[in-house]
Structures are given as C-alpha cells and as structure tokens.
TrEMBL record:
SUPFAM superfamilies: Bet v1-like
Provenance organism: Chitinophaga ginsengisoli
Stated name of the protein: Uncharacterized protein YndB with AHSA1/START domain
Domain Activator of Hsp90 ATPase homologue 1/2-like C-terminal: start-end pairs: 17-138
Protein family per UniProt: Belongs to the AHA1 family.
InterPro entries: ASHA1/2-like_C, START-like_dom_sf
Coiled-coil zones: none
Length: 141
C-alpha cells in the first residue's frame, strides 16, 4: 500500500479586530460573500455555512464577467469557537485555521493540503490573496 503525503501550505495574517468580530466575519455567509475571492474581477454570488462539527459549507466563486465559476466546499471535522476550524474539502484535502487573540487584534494561520493541478507557489499566492482580502474587508467594516 502506498501512502501519498500531500504538501502542506500555510498562509497567515494579523487582523486589527477582536477575535469575536473576526470569527463572525469569517463564518457568516453575508460576510463571506464580501471577501472570499482573490481579486476584484471575482465575486461570491452564493454562500452557505453550517458551522459545527459534521456541518457542511459551500461557497460559489465566480468571475464577474460570467466566464467561469466553481463551488468551494467541504465538511467541518472540528470547530472550537474563536480558536480553531478544521475541515475536509470535497477532494479529501484537509484544512486547518487557527485564530489567536493578540490584545485587540487576531492572528489567523491557515494551513491546507496542496492539490496537484497548480504549483505550490500559485496556490499559496491565491489563498494568501483571499486572506488579505478578508483582512481588508474586516478592518474596513
């Protein structure tokens, strides 16, 4: 039996907002629609989130010009309010997000297993861009 170890990629940021606000903006569909894309020519027309162990989530990411869209979703394997979210994507890759309160700020460290289609650098850049968009949206609102 062969076991394939997937490459783990980590992205992180510190958001100038308390962990309770960061948690809400990260998990509420009305907020997810405002930040879960890597560039301004994309948007999120639909988002559903059942934030609990065993719950499912789905976010539709789409090009604003209508040329392409895809669903990003999975099942939560562990949820610890204001601290940790772990989930498995539809293609069985695992993702872990740590939230750490640092005074009035919140550090987010997101680690995910790479897929085989795109380079590690491209995946890290894309996920970091989404995380940076989250930081910008959360700090501005």
């Amino acid at each position: 039996m062969t076991t394939t170890t997937k490459t783990a990629i980590t992205v992180e940021t510190t958001v100038q907002a308390p962990v309770a606000k960061v948690w809400e903006y990260w998990n509420q569909p009305e907020h997810i629609k405002q930040w879960a894309f890597a560039s301004d020519d994309w948007h999120v027309p639909a988002s559903e989130n059942d934030l609990r162990t065993g719950g499912k989530f789905s976010t539709t990411m789409a090009a604003k010009d209508g040329s392409f869209s895809f669903d990003f979703g999975g099942v939560y394997t562990q949820v610890k309010e204001h601290k940790l979210i772990e989930y498995t994507l539809g293609d069985e890759r695992k993702v872990s997000i740590l939230f750490s309160s640092i005074g009035d700020a919140t550090k987010i460290v997101e680690t995910f297993e790479a897929e085989d289609t795109h380079s590690v650098e491209m995946q890290q850049s894309g996920w970091q861009a989404i995380l940076d968009n989250f930081k910008k949206y959360t700090e501005a609102n």
